From TrEMBL, chains A, B, C, D:
Protein name: L-lactate dehydrogenase (cytochrome)
Cell compartment(s), UniProt: Mitochondrion intermembrane space
Biased composition (Basic and acidic residues): 278-287
Cofactor(s) needed: heme b; FMN
């Protein structure tokens, strides 16, 4: 099966396979036959054909997990090695669009001018490559849930207390027995190298510096061990797991993680199939060569975006009864990531898991799924009613993620019973715009906000952030206004304000 | 009465009747005196006068039901036949506007680039003739209900379940004993040839290919038999019925339909008079020749749009007591289309009908009528309370239509008790933009969405899509915000995001 | 006291009083000394000074009630008559702005193109003089109530009934024993000649033609008798009354009205002081001569707009105990216009009045007063609870006004218990744009809408328009959304629709 | 410690210290070494370096409290005096931007054209220096609470009464035994000289003229005694207090205030740390010299805006138990300013304080803090429930501030139980645009509005403004609409109004 890998080709041998009919490429000195893979490539066939018969390493490297090609291509397409000395160098043409982007990179505001997490996104949007932006920012269907995740926090208001000694405020907490500087963690997000050449390592380094936990994603751009190796001694890391249809593969991954010191296993349960994200799909389509488009016609399945292509191994048959097996292969705390109603949270509790993440996968899976913060209110109410427990609770931890941009958002979740809150995209945007320093700055901003806002809440410690400090009575309101009466509104003449004299004479 | 039809005219005989005072036209080789009909023509008199004394077949054909002229014109105006060899050919002048439209048709994106049902509408709006767009897209009064139909779905949110085996998902269902591939059907919409020369046949063909039901409209552009003939063996079709004041005419139509194998009869009950649709009315007016406008002055009744003109036969006296008669003339299941409150749904149930369609006629009739999905919640609640029945229910089927654009919309209706959901305009836009292939693509998109979203809901079959999977507690909220405080808002200076350095120096 | 009126001046005698220090003007052949009145003139001093020493009749006539000058000026300023032959003719300069307005008047769309009441406003806004538009359209403070009056109807939705014989629909009704063709009336509005030279007579004529009631305003531009004289035999008219501090003046007016056949007396109770309407105030200010502005400095009281100036006679001391006196001077039914809560409606009922108008004066008085339709729901509920009566009720009539633009609005009010609904501004705009024909067209549009919508409601007569036909459960919701998160929203990139190929290549 | 102040320098002695390495400046004839203070200066280092070695008095004077430099700089940096005759005059370069601003100042509309409080803000925004505008208008985080403060009033609607004698209306009231002309007071706001050279004295003078109370801020630009001295005999003034970590300093300030006749002490309890206000922070950053920015890099702590720098003395340890001490040092009524929930209001009542201000510090501290008017509803309800007291109540006064722009806002608060309402920014904008006259005009506008609106409410005195006059049932609604469906909305074609003929032919 792998004997062909032993062959050694010359550059010329490879160069003649430079067409759609026969397309070989070189990556890291290995030769691959990707002819049959062309139409399945998430990034489109055009970009591969550009390197047909050539060395694609420089293009491949930053945006693929190290083992992407070996995993996606059947072994018989791994043809062997090439003598790199005989390979012609590829000269990359830089497009005008890319030049303009580089100029925007040079014009980034200094980190001093970044005042909040929104700012990172504003800069990243301008300086990231289009496809990276599309992949990170896109979400399911009409992206209603994406935005609801943020909006839901705005339906929760504070009831701050006064006349309490807040000279010292302490917003550190303990999760699974380990100290963390803030009640947040860096949640798992895929393909970090799309945004920055160091990918997820940016997060590892910043997490170390600021004392927060990083959750390592199954679909990282960097290799798992690379990320673990980059951690400081004692730096806590968790693992996010997509369960493979091949349970042996999953067992190997889980047991390796435990051996490497991972502190908790977050099993993703909201993604039996990865989402149709139309911005991502449209971006890919727009990027395609018109000639290639015409050729392939209706044959290419546009409904399969990047997410789907890299995730076909995920088992849609994962069930409650699989939990026994997980308990048999690891001693790490088990947490279900993507619980979306109290009934499933109760089941997880009854099954003696360590906790749940109330999450809708950043709005990327089911549109009109409710926000984690809304589900939190329901879960806390019902688990108290059904099992008499209160939150936060060391025996069964509630996490929330999605839509968080401010420490006030986090404090609302904490008041309502969450142990910690996951933040994803803001850190992606931070390193996409500024690398590791960006993530550090983002974490520092959060610390400043925590200090300020805990003082203003009258809460010296997180234990003092209690349910009566928030009014969440509107969290379940999903209102759409009656459609506007355009005829009436167009007739209505808006009142003017007082105007300067000059302006008046000009008008 | 019909003896005049025996006469044969020469082209010259007809050509002299070329004025408002005496206006004859030729259609399909027959001669008609339309002088007195000029001001009643829904499309305005101008377009007829353009063909006064000439052959109007090419203009007439695509936008009229085959028997429109014979039905609307009294028999004595059917003058006879013409010797076509003696008729001068009409040269159609193509306007600049029409040329621009043709260019837009040529520039349609390929079907690959169509990712959702919205996209069809976006393309159709650009490539359809103005009057076709106006007729399809228009609705009653301020079009509040039109938009509410869509908006109401956005007040319903999901409560998805996890850890269920969704390796296989099956979204087929059975309606009136017949299998259908999805819980949707193509609902009845009028005048299909306005959008595409093949009219309703596009729907018949695509329905066959994808295994869904087509409801044939009374006001189809294609003849009823033509549509039935186009069906594949065993392909289920239903019939939508406007009840004629002449009950014998209705009897003939119904019994003919049953004989041709129609599986269910949907009697429209929300349209005793067809709607004032101002976009449609304004379009017609704008299209009129200014000279003609000046001449006719206030004489033309602008309140009678196309809808009214083609529907004057509908009986506004239709009553509950007529149902006995319907039961006496047919064995097809009888369904009332356009039920809008639980009281009438209960009456239909008590009268042992087969079901009801909760619908407001696509927002085209009574503005501020509530959406079908909102009525569904009320009907299910009250029929359970009054008669102890639950839904979906094989004895009494609930259908919903209006405003549907996503499989998630349909799944919400199914969760709340609907057997299937009718979709209309999206398919009109699909074939107006791309013919039959457009409708096929639209159906394929829905299938992709069903597969994805049922997985994400944790529902392997439609039976698993249950009421507790949705939160519809806001569905009855009809909120209009307090009018804006423009003075305050205009004074408020919106916060800026971080900006690039160049941009800053330029500003 | 009036002997000076006997004097006869020459044109030259008058012409020398042409300055701010001594300012005489001629109106209808009479000479008036307006020197001390200059700063009190609602339209500003500049327009009077333009005619200082001259004949102002042409300018005065269209915008003042006939007796305005004699009422506002003390008798000693009525100097006498002038020999008109000796007076120099005034040549009126037409400004560029006025020329542009005249061109817009010529470009009005034909009445055929007017499809709804909104259209009249759209045309009137373009063709009316600025100050007329400002006076008619303006309202109190931030004009929140003005717009809420319309918006409130949008929180009420229909529950139409089906399968009822609506072959014939009859929307006529009886009010105070008199037949009217629709459940609407033309409510009282001031200064009709601002919009059209025939002023309120336009309304009288159209009301006659269409069989509806006109309410004659105290502040009409036309004289009361002129309006009554213009009525057809048997045409019902009502009177709106501002109660004068001089009760004898009020007694004379009321008893004269009764003698002239007025059928009901509507006493305005929501305007002890007429409103600050800032659009109106700003308009006046902008129109002032800068030189005059500089001269007068802070001396002119800008807080007194036109409304206040013409209404200083209104008695802010009017009380419940005054009702006995009203009953003693007239046998006309007495109705209070401007009731705004159930407590006052109950008091009116207990005092055996004929009814109340639930109104906030078209949003022109107290901002954040609730809409009439909202108050109706409260009044009907509470009067049933407190006195066991139901509505509509012949013994105690409920009227509503404010914000009505569609027959559906009226039908909502009727369903909720109103006998009829007052419509004001739409008729002002109708005659401002098209004179009497405009009002007739507006009434015809309403009839068309009533016919259509009663059919669609399943209501052959107004008695069939019952409470269960509407859902008014949201009518008391006064929601203001949480202020927008501009940073988040500005970062969010809206999803695109499919685009034409050309457009793509251009972008 | 202070001996160095005795030294006398020549201009040349000072002039050589003109660099970042050694930076001396002259203010009011004194010499200060500010080298180490450069990076702590709230206005940035650049503006100081511009005056390095020179006389900075003209620049310093308008924007600093008189003792700012002596307080902020340690005594050893107070170097001594300078012989002013030997100092070179500084020539201030006026930027183009400043010239444009001066032109806008000259073009201010006359005070006659100012119709409401919004107008002052519109003018001030255009004529104030950028940093003054940024400091006054900025608020916490996303400025949600800032805007909510205003929006909350819009969720409260009136239930006015009719037929009451409102010939005379009296809106005066009594607070702490002293008469005031309206139920409003001028609340404490910092740094008045940023907007106008006379700073807080503008407020003192206007308050005297119109008979309202001024609350003197701890962080006034003018000296406390200056403000007290400017008051008329018997003019009531209150004091706002930030409690110093050095309690002796606070004792001195409080006892001095009591001696000077201050009538009440308002202790600020919502600001243990002054807020991060990003508009203010961004303004400062933008204003910085790019070269200076580059040099300082990440060293300057941008999270410390002006507010924080001038407020580092505030004690975040202030507690309920400190109240005993306050009672021991003064007999002035004690009021807590910044109470935000009923629990703390109840505690203040139980501790026998004189009242509380329900306030969130103008939205400048904790974002998503609720508005004062919303808290008022909760406090009145709960204190009645817990202690059986009703409001307004002479023993325990409730004040509200934040977001007020209209007398109707104030009347809503009064109806709900407030004794008086604090107004801040509108008066800052009034004097920033027009000096003392601006504030006088603002107060006169409020009086006009009170007179009008109390008449329209049917309330001759403030005692007649009762709870049943308002509907506050929506005040706790914090709704965020479901995010918009952009695809659907972009497809929807808004209905057109009737258009003029010309316009049509052009389009």
């Amino acid at each position: 099966m792998v004997q062909s890998e032993g062959r050694i080709f010359s550059g010329k041998d490879v160069a003649i396979h430079n067409s759609r009919e026969s397309c070989w490429i070189i990556v890291h000195g290995k030769v691959y036959d990707v002819t049959e893979f062309l139409d399945d490539h998430p990034g489109g066939s055009k970009i591969i054909l550009k390197y047909a018969g050539k060395d694609a390493t420089r293009e491949y490297e930053p945006i693929h997990p190290p083992d992407a090609i070996t995993t996606n291509l059947p072994p018989e397409k791994h043809l062997g090695s090439v003598d790199l000395a005989t390979v012609e160098k590829v000269i990359v043409q830089i497009t005008d669009e890319e030049k303009a982007r580089q100029q925007r990179v040079d014009a980034r505001p200094s980190l001093d001018a970044i005042l909040n997490l929104h700012d990172f996104e504003a800069v990243a949007k301008l300086v990231m490559p289009d496809k990276a932006w599309a992949y990170y920012s896109s979400a399911a269907d009409d992206e209603i849930t994406l935005r609801e995740n943020h909006a839901a926090y705005h339906r929760i208001w504070f009831r701050p207390r006064i006349m309490r000694d807040v000279t010292k405020v302490d917003f550190s907490t303990t999760i699974f027995g380990q100290k963390t500087s803030m009640p947040i963690y860096i949640t798992a997000t895929a393909l970090g190298k799309l945004g920055h050449p160091d990918g997820e390592l940016n997060l590892t380094r910043a997490a170390a510096k600021h004392g927060v936990v990083q959750m390592i994603p199954t679909l990282a751009s960097c290799a798992f061990d690379e990320i673990v190796d980059a951690a400081q001694p004692g730096q806590p890391q968790w693992m996010q797991l997509y369960v493979n249809m091949d349970r042996n593969a999953t067992r190997r991954v889980v047991q390796h993680a435990e051996k490497r010191g991972i502190k908790a296993l977050f099993i993703t349960v909201d993604a039996p199939q990865l989402g149709r994200r139309e911005k991502d799909m449209r971006q890919k389509y727009d990027a395609e060569d018109p000639a290639e488009q015409a050729r392939t016609g209706g044959d290419v399945d546009r409904t399969q975006g990047a997410a789907r292509a890299i995730s076909s191994f995920i088992d849609p048959g994962l069930c409650w009864k699989d939990l026994a097996w997980f308990k048999s292969i690891t001693n790490m705390p088990l947490i279900l990531k993507g619980v979306q109603c109290w009934e499933d949270a109760l089941e997880a509790y009854d099954q003696k898991l360590a906790g749940v993440v109330l999450s809708n996968h950043g709005g990327r899976q089911l549109d009109f799924a409710r926000s984690g913060i809304e589900i939190l209110v329901e879960v806390v109410t019902k688990l108290k009613e059904k099992r008499g427990i209160t939150f936060p609770n060391d025996k069964f931890l509630l996490f929330v993620d999605g839509g968080v941009r401010r420490a006030t958002d986090v404090l609302k979740a904490v008041a309502l019973g969450a142990t910690a809150v996951g933040i994803g995209r803001p850190f992606l945007y931070s390193f996409s715009a500024y690398g590791t320093e960006g993530v550090e700055k983002a974490l520092q901003i959060l610390k400043d906000e925590f200090e300020m806002n805990m003082r203003l809440l009258g809460a010296p410690t997180l234990k003092d952030v209690v349910p009566s400090m928030v009014d969440a009575s509107n969290v379940h309101s999903h209102i759409v206004s009656v459609p506007g009466d355009n005829l009436y509104n167009n007739n209505y003449e808006s009142l003017p304000l007082a105007r300067l004299k000059e302006l008046k004479s000009k008008l």
